[in-house]
Every structure is written in C-alpha cells, then in structure tokens.
Automatic annotation (TrEMBL), chain A:
Belongs to the bacterial solute-binding protein 1 family. It comes from Thermocatellispora tengchongensis. Residues 1-23 form the signal peptide. InterPro entries: Bact_solute-bd_prot1 (IPR050490), SBP (IPR006059). Pfam families: SBP_bac_1 (PF01547). It comes from the Bacteria. Keywords: Signal, Sugar transport, Transport. This is Multiple sugar transport system substrate-binding protein/raffinose/stachyose/melibiose transport system substrate-binding protein. The keyword DNA damage does not apply.
Length: 414, 279
C-alpha cells in the first residue's frame, strides 16, 4: 500500500512539475502589470541578435510594462522552432520569419480586422482564403544580378546591354577570359535560391499561374520553361562559368568571395546591399535585373520583408498584436528594419548607398513583384528539394535528371 | 525503493516512446488533429529515396566512424597506458575535442576544409587546385567521418585507459618472461582482457553515430546535393521542419529500432566471443 502511495505522490509531483514547465517563461510576469512577450526571431548576418535587442529596447522604452524576450532558432528554421514550441506546449507570442500556409493558417491570429494591417506591404498577396495572418515591414526583391564594376570594365562588358540570356552568356564568356569566376555561388541554401531568383523571373513572368497549374498536374518541370534553365545551369557548369568548388562555401563565404572581387557577378536578393555597404564596397558594385528571354525587365521574384505573425495560442494576444503593429507601422521601427536588411517600402526613404538606389530603381521599373504565396505557393519542402537537385548538377546529374526527379518528388507529396 | 525511478523512467522514456510510435501511425502535421493511417508512414520509409539515401549515409558514417574511433582510441590508449605526466597531457589533448560542442567543431573544420578554407588556400598558393573536402560528394562523406573520428576518439581513449589499468601487471610480466613481444602481449592478453570495455565503447559509438546531426549541420549542412544527409538530419531539417511530423516520427522510430538492434547484435556477438574464449 505504501508503495502505491509513494508511486502516486511521485506521479503527481511529476505531472505538476511538467505542467509548470509547459507553462513556459512567457505570459504575464510575476510583477503585476508586467507582460513578457516571447518572440521567435531569425538570426542572419544582417539581422543579428544585437540588432533585435536594440530594436526591442526602443519598444520597451516606450512601453515600460512590456519586456520582449527573444527566442533564437539555433540551427533550425523559424517554422521548425515554432512547431517545436507548440509541440512542447510552450507557444511563443509572436513569430518572425514564419509565413503561414493554408495548412498552418489555423495556428495564427487573423489580423483582417486590424485597420493598420491593410496598409502594410503585400498584405493582399499573402492572404489565405481571404484572411490575413501575416504582416510585414517592407518588400524584398530577389531577381537581381550584382556585378563587380572593375571586372566588367576589364572584360569590356557593358552591364546596361545585358538583357537576354544570350547576352548574359556572352558576358560570362568575356569575364572568364578576363580571369574572373563569372558567376558566384555557394553551398547550403544558396545554390537553389539563386536558381529560383533567376528562373522564376523568366518562367513566372511568362506564366504567373505556373505553380497553380503544376499543383493541378497541368504542367511539369520537364515539360515547361524550367527545363531550359536546368539546361542552362548545366551548360554554365560545363563551361566553367560557375566554379564547381563553390559548393564547398557557406553563404557568408560566397558573399565574401564576391565582395573580395574574386568573382564578377552574384545573383542575390536586395538584402545583399547592407552587406556590401558594411564592407565599404557599394560604389564598386552595380546591379541589374536578371536576364530573360521574354519581357524585359522581367517581374521581380520577391517577398514580404520581415513577416510577423501572432501565434493563436498566445496568452498575451492583445499585447502581441500591439507589438506587431508597432513593428510594421512605427516610422522609426520601420526605417531601422528596412535599413538593416536592405528592404524597400513605398514612402519610407532611408539613407541608402548608390547600390541601394540601383535596387530601388529596378523595383520602380519592374512590371510586378512575383509573390509565391497563397495558391501560388509551391508544396512544402520544394525549396529544399530544388536546392538538392540543383546541387546535383555540380556532382554529375543531368538537367533531365533534375527535372524528372523534381517531378517525381512533387507528385509524391500528395 | 525502485518506485520513484520506475515512475521517472516510465514518464520520461516509455511514455514518449509509446506516444512516438502512436504518432508514427498517423498523418499528424504537428498541430491539428492526428488521423490514424496504419502503417502508411512505414511503407513510405522504404519508398522514399531521400530516406533510403540518408539511411545508407547513416550506416556508412556509423560503421566507419565507430571503427575509426575504436581503432584510433585503442592505438592511442595502448601508447598512453603508463602513468606519466606526458601521457596525462596527451590523454587530455585527445579528449579535448569531446568537450567542445559538435556544432562549433563542425564550423571550425568547415573553415579549415572549405573551398576558401585554410588548407585549400595553402594548396592554391602551392599551385594545387582546391580539394573537394566539402564539395565532392564522396570526399564530403569521408571528411564527415574523419571529423567525427577526430572529435570522438578521445572518449574511447579514456575508457580504454581505464580498462587497461585493470589488466593484472603479473600477467604481462609473466608473458614478458616467456619471451612474448609487445605486439603479442597486446593481441593475446591485453585486448581480450579489456574486451568488455571495447564492447561498451562500440555500442556507445554506434548508437551515438546513428543519431549524428549537429556536426552534419555545421560541417556540410547535408550537402553537397544531399550526400551527407543522415537520418537524424533528415528528420530535423526536412520532415519535422515541414508539416510531415507523422512521417518524421516514423523515421525516428525506425532509427530507434535500428539503434536498439545494433546494440543487441553487437553485445550478443561479443558475449558469444567471450564465452568461446573462456571455454
């Protein structure tokens, strides 16, 4: 009997301690009137922990009853971190860099009723079933080719004349002859992302509904405009326009190699601008839209910059919404965030380098921004699968293999 | 007296395993209601090319990693078994990587072996092209195993040195009087006598390496082209990060079963060998 009592006591203690642990550190703090908001943030070379702390110091100074606690993602993506927290029964209040999908929308607070939310960038483009679960600070555009002005001058290439793929290839040939690696890439996620920045501008400008059609089985990777881009990429590797050893570089190393002047061109998003500014290289670098065989300039593959969601299970929903409102509507907060990551927003100018001006000019001239959200969102895991397949071109796969395997993978996702 | 331990073990180990097995039989996406789908996720394990490839990589890493850690650990321990200050220094040196986070070790070696890393920059200065430690599919796996062995063999050294110090000195002296060489002594007396320690180290190494994740993330991030993705990496970086938690759990249960089976098989083989040696 005593043994059973002991067992029951131990079990009760465990359940109580587990329940307490699951309560987490969030929620209203011990002091009356004090609220601690826990927020998942993505740490990048531009958006450092120091950046976030400084930003939230501003908010805390204006809202003495609120403390913002950073939830760092470590080695995993922000979305995986959110899932871990939810599975552990320890939900954060806000998640940055998590974009809801039709499958995950139920996790987040619908901000459709917030008047301020409708004025934020790409608000409509990110709607799911007419509801708005995410708001952002600005826009990022990504179909950009940054180039080394010195390399172009030495190779006798005029960047303003590069509009078509053929002209781009001709330029790469000249740059290679001049002793430069024509196109800089890197391993990790960079390989697939750069491919997307280039290929989506061509394929999705020609057919913005391509992803919707692929989901319905009305088109395939092998039988569409993407096939040409796999073939192009394969041929560029064969011709030495892309250095195969670049796959052994991490993202910051690839960026550093381009900034150092080892390579002539670097396809990257607008968030490259602050890195060039910090390195004091902005005036040595120019930018033009990715080439296209169709309309020029093509649409810019882009997305919401610094997206914020309020987690549905938050115990501090109102306070969390207030913080998100401040992040996406307060002029000072917006400018700090835009400048930190080189992002753009109509009506919000901040001190920007010549390179930043170049990116703004490209956005102004772009016919539209291609946003792959809502119905146009690829199936979950596509970016990772594409990255693996594009990297396989470096290690001997053919363009045909890439297209076939991507089609097989997509179809297997049900 | 055992009750508290039983409760803790049940709540912390058995219950999560039961929950994991249940979730692996569902289509749970991590947040909404789970629907029971039977063995569908397990059937997918065998059909999914990514899982098959990651499974093979995991087995290669576990096998060669364990062999390397055991072999190097044993050689190192045999050299350092005597109690001398210099041996203590070298033992500490061998153990040192083990106390550093595997993530940091991965980043460190990535900086050394990457395309623009210290070694390749030196090779370039000598007019030799970069070696694909991290960008060649096959070499990247070898690099991964090498770094794992370097990082982990020190743990085995500590175990083996402790085991070696239990070998009776008289036995070795008797063998020496009989004219046995050092190699014969090691092969016929020392290694058989520390075989239980070797078995423990082997099981710990295999089980640890079957779950290897952190060093993969920081050294290769699963690349190039997925060639160094292990099952644990796949579970955490792909399946769990997506909405495929039911499938991720099936992968985890599969990993647990393989891990347990390996431990049982290795221990059984060692026990049989020990019994044969004793009879």
């Amino acid at each position: 009997m005593n043994r059973w009592r002991l067992l029951a006591a131990a079990a009760t203690a465990l359940v109580l301690s587990a329940t307490t642990a699951c309560g987490g550190a969030g929620g209203t703090g011990g002091e009356p009137g004090k609220t601690t908001l826990r927020m998942i943030v993505n740490i990048t070379p531009n958006l450092t922990e120091q950046f976030w702390t400084g930003l939230f110091d501003l908010y805390e100074a204006k809202n003495p009853g609120v403390t913002v606690q950073l939830e760092l993602t470590g080695t995993i993506e922000a979305e995986a971190k959110l899932r871990q927290d939810l599975a552990a029964g320890d939900p954060p209040d806000i998640a940055q860099h998590v974009v809801p999908t039709p499958e995950t929308a139920e996790l987040f607070v619908d901000l459709s009723g917030e008047a301020w939310a409708a004025k934020t960038p790409l608000y409509e483009e990110y709607a799911i079933g007419g509801k708005h679960y995410v708001v952002g600070v600005g826009e990022q555009i990504q179909s950009l080719v940054f180039y080394n002005k010195k390399a172009f001058a030495e190779a006798g290439v005029d960047a303003t004349k590069i509009r078509t793929i053929a002209q781009f290839e001709e330029a790469m040939g000249k740059l290679k002859k001049a002793g430069y690696v024509p196109l800089q890439t890197a391993g990790q996620w960079v390989t697939g992302a750069q491919f997307t920045m280039l290929a989506d501008a061509g394929v999705l400008t020609a057919d913005p509904e391509w992803t919707v059609k692929r989901k319905k089985g009305q088109t395939t990777f092998a039988g569409s405009g993407y096939m040409r881009y796999y073939q192009l990429y394969e041929s560029w590797l064969d011709k030495g326009f892309i250095d195969k050893s670049s796959l052994g570089l991490q993202y910051p190393d690839g960026q550093a190699a381009f900034l150092k002047g080892d390579s002539a061109m670097y396809i990257m998003g607008s968030y490259f601008v602050p890195a060039a500014d910090d390195a004091g290289k902005s005036d040595d670098i120019g930018v033009f839209p990715v080439p296209s065989d169709g309309a020029y300039p093509p649409g810019q593959f882009g997305n919401m910059a610094q997206p914020y969601t309020v987690v549905g299970q938050s115990e501090n929903r109102e306070a969390a919404i207030d913080l998100v409102e401040w992040l996406v509507t307060d002029e000072e907060a917006i400018k700090i965030q835009l400048a930190a990551d080189g992002n753009l927003r109509k009506g919000f100018a901040y001190d920007v380098s010549s390179l930043g001006d170049g990116v703004q000019a490209i956005l102004d001239e772009a016919p539209f921004v291609i946003v792959k959200q809502g119905e146009r969102q690829p199936v979950q895991g596509y970016a990772e699968e594409l990255n693996t397949r594009i990297q396989s071109l470096f290690t001997g796969s053919s363009a045909g293999d890439v297209a076939t395997k991507l089609d097989q993978w997509w179809d297997s996702q049900g | 007296m055992l009750a508290p331990a039983v409760v803790v073990y049940t709540v912390m180990t058995i219950v999560p395993v039961i929950v994991a097995v249940y979730l692996s039989l569902t289509d749970w996406n991590g947040f909404s209601t789970a629907t029971f789908i039977g063995l569908e996720n397990y059937a997918r394990l065998f059909d999914d090319p990514d899982t098959t490839r990651a499974g093979l990589v995991t087995l290669v890493v576990a096998f060669f990693g364990a062999v390397g850690m055991l072999g190097l650990g044993l050689v190192y321990a045999l050299q350092l078994k005597e109690r001398r200050w210099s041996n203590s220094f070298f033992r500490t040196l061998a153990y040192y990587p083990h106390v550093i986070s595997a993530l940091i070790l991965g980043f460190l070696w990535s900086a050394i072996l990457g395309t623009n890393g210290a070694i390749n920059n030196t090779l370039r200065d000598l007019g030799i092209g970069p070696v694909g430690f991290l960008f060649d599919e096959n070499l990247a796996v070898i690099t991964l195993v090498g770094v794992i062995v370097w990082a982990g063999f020190g743990f085995n050294v500590v175990l083996f040195v402790a085991g070696l110090q239990t070998v009776p000195r008289e036995l070795i002296e008797a063998a020496q009087i009989d004219g046995a060489s050092q190699r014969q002594i090691n092969r016929r007396i020392v290694i058989p006598m520390i075989s239980p320690v070797v078995t423990v180290a082997m099981v710990l190494n295999l089980v640890g390496l079957i779950k290897v994740y952190d060093i993969v993330v920081s050294l290769t991030d699963g690349g190039p082209a997925g060639s160094t993705e292990t099952i644990a990496y796949l579970i955490l970086s792909r399946s769990f990060a997506g909405t495929d938690v039911g499938f991720a759990t099936a992968q985890a249960v599969g990993l647990m079963v393989v891990s347990a089976a390996l431990s049982v098989v290795v221990t059984a083989l060692r026990n049989r060998q020990d019994r044969a040696a004793a009879s």
